[in-house]
Amino acid sequence: MVLTQKEESEIRSSHRVSLFNLTIYKKFLRKGWLMAVIPGVVMALFGTLMILIWPEFEEVMSDPAFLELMTSEIYQLLLGGSFDMSTFQGFWSIELYTILEFLMLFLVVFIPVRLISNEVDKNTLDIALSYPIPRWQFLLQKYLVYLTQMFFIPVFLVLSALLGAIPLNETFNNTGLILSGLGWFVLFFSLGAISLLVTTLFLESGRSLAAAGIMVFGMWILDRLSGLVESTKFLQNISIFHYLVPRKILETGEIPLAEFGLVVLIGVMALIGALYIFNRRELAY
Amino acid sequence: MSSSVSKDIVLQVSNLTKVYGKEFNIGGRTFGRAVVGAKNVSFDVKKGEIFGFLGPNGAGKTTVMRAVLDYLHITGSVTFFGKLDHHRDALLIRENVGYVPGEVALYGNFNGNEIIKYFNNFRPINHEFVKKLKSIFRVDLTLKIGQLSQGNRKQVALIVALASKPDLLILDEPSGGLDPLMAANFHDILKELAEEGITIFISSHDLSEVQTVCNRIAIIKEGEIVLVETIEELKAKFLQKMRIIFSKKEDMPTVEELLSLSTVVSAEKPNGKVRTFLLTIEEDANELLKFVTKFHIKRLSIEDATIEEIFLQYYQ
To answer: Is the Cβ–Cβ distance between B20 and B98 less than 8 Å?
Structure first.
């Protein structure tokens, strides 16, 4: 018995694949909603605390001796630039953005890497991918869960800043505040995409975490430490952190479009690379 | 792949070869290591049959199953439903293929009902059949997967895979971890599904399971298929066991006389039993029967070799 063209097309048409099914996104977001809320709420609470203690610290921050200390080159390098701490906005951002930067270094490595490596370690991919969902879509939806979780961090931070400043009659550069929130989100996006790309290459969590950690922490160290010596300053150019500094965006109220575009482009390329590799690679582990 | 493929063949595997790792030869020295997981594996599974894939741990069963499902890069070809290529048409194939891996792992923070609902979004389930499966397996689906034993997780995975009644079920050692009663119930379900026309490709190293449920089997050894036969053909082709008890010890042959017959493979007398002989014989028993009937026989029985014995013959 031989299949005719008609019979073949009947077999094909009887198999219908839904190309846009957000089940994975919805399910994993529901299961991981705490991760969407906790970091943002913690940062917002900490930001509110900074706002509340500002009246006590205002005098200290204006002390010339303290301001002199802030002009130290090493201090500026660690903070990513020269910033004025004597203003309400400067005080708030220098504390909050430094903490958020360190938090981000961990979040952009651990969460994207574990999106897939956790499934590999626990062997859950075999069943999950035996269903008619394209692998790239599986990965993209899981990455969208991460992006949604990270989206709430700048949102909560900005909202807490705007609301917290009202009782003190203090003001932020609102445009700068919102744009810096966008800057944070783009950094979460691009650095997370790089970690995801690394994971699709290694799959297993130990090696993925190590490689993604080296990439992300390496870029951060390059940006901060290579600026110490004139002859190594060019190394800053290969770090994403060099192109997008949320603290600067807050201060200037402007987002550097070319640099912003470059960081977005790197993130998009890394994400496309991750989706492509995961779609094609063999799952031998 | 030829365009003339039988409609009755649900899965056709041709010359499937999988090599893990790579070896490089630089300056006469070998670097890396290549391990053959499967070599020129060819077989087909027909519509409505239960096809067993038999072999000990490490023989290549899981490699072949994962390769068939397009998890591994291979050489050779795998065709589903007569025309669908396992790689090019992977999504179409998955609409109608259920899979349970050997090591079942489901999301630990989902409960059983959530898992069923979650996968229902990708391949709609048959609710009536799920009710039946729930009553048979009796696993508490309100508990999180992380709270279940390995055997209960396997039951949830089986419910999930069977729930949509796909055209083809690929089950990698599915009854591992199930208690005997549950395994028997599961075998009944498989037989019912096969009667409905659902094709089942099942791997196992549990020989009695294969003997109970399969219509045909393939034996895989060190990555190569060494045999593909129906259970009946296999038993007929292989050695049989004969037990003869003679009436008088003065009127019976010697072990040497029995062994001199061409169909007798082995002959022995069990300890303490003077008039009893245990023989292993080849398919044609005529010569032996003609010979032993010269003596006065009290009792004679012939049994087919079990699948275990056949399997061991291949592996020894």
So the answer is: no
**Tens of each residue's pLDDT in chain B, 316 residues:** 333 445 689 999 999 999 999 888 888 888 888 999 999 999 999 999 999 999 888 899 999 999 999 999 999 999 999 889 999 999 999 999 999 999 888 999 999 999 999 999 999 999 999 999 999 988 999 999 999 998 899 999 999 999 999 999 999 999 888 888 899 999 999 999 999 999 999 998 887 888 889 999 999 999 999 989 998 887 777 778 889 999 988 899 999 999 998 888 888 888 778 899 998 887 778 888 999 999 999 999 988 777 777 777 776 6
Residue B86 host element (H or E): none
Q: How many domains does chain A have?
A: 1
Asked if residue A13 belongs to a domain, the reply is no
A52, A89, A273, B89, B145 from A164: Cα distances, Å: 8, 12, 41, 56, 43
Class in CATH terms, B239-315: alpha beta
> How close is the nearest chain B Cα to the Cα of A240, in Å?
35
Q: Is residue A10 part of a domain?
A: no
Residue A78 lies in a domain: yes
Query: Is 3.40.50.300 the CATH number for B47-67+82-235?
Result: yes
Q: Which residues on A lie below 8 Å from B86 (Cβ)?
A: none
> Does residue A260 belong to any structural domain of this protein?
yes
CB contact under 8 A, B101 and A126: yes
Q: How far from B72 is each of A202, B31, B242, CA to CA, in Å?
A: 15, 23, 46
Q: Which two tokens stand for residue B200?
A: 């089942």
Domain that holds residue A151: 22-280
Q: How far is CA B100 from CA B62, B155, B157, in A?
A: 11, 10, 6
- State whether B72 and A1 contact (CB < 8 Å): no
Q: Please report residues of A whose CB lies closer than 8 A to that of B203.
A: none
Detail the DSSP E strand segments found in chain B: 9-20, 23-26, 29-32, 35-46, 50-54, 75-80, 84-85, 97-100, 168-172, 199-204, 216-221, 224-230, 240-246, 264-268, 276-281, 297-304
Do residue B7 and residue A1 have CB atoms under 8 angstroms apart?
Answer: yes
DSSP H/E element including A2: none
Residue B66: its chain A contacts at CB < 8 A? 126, 283
Contact B7 A17 (CB under 8 A): no
* Ramachandran bin of B222, using left for φ above 0, alpha for ψ from -120 to 50, beta for the remaining angles: left
Across the interface, whether the CB atoms of B122 and A1 are under 8 A apart is answered no
Q: Provide the shortest C-alpha distance from residue B95 to chain A (in Å).
A: 5
CA distances in angstroms from B270 to A211, B52, B227, B260, B278, listed in the order given: 66, 35, 33, 19, 7
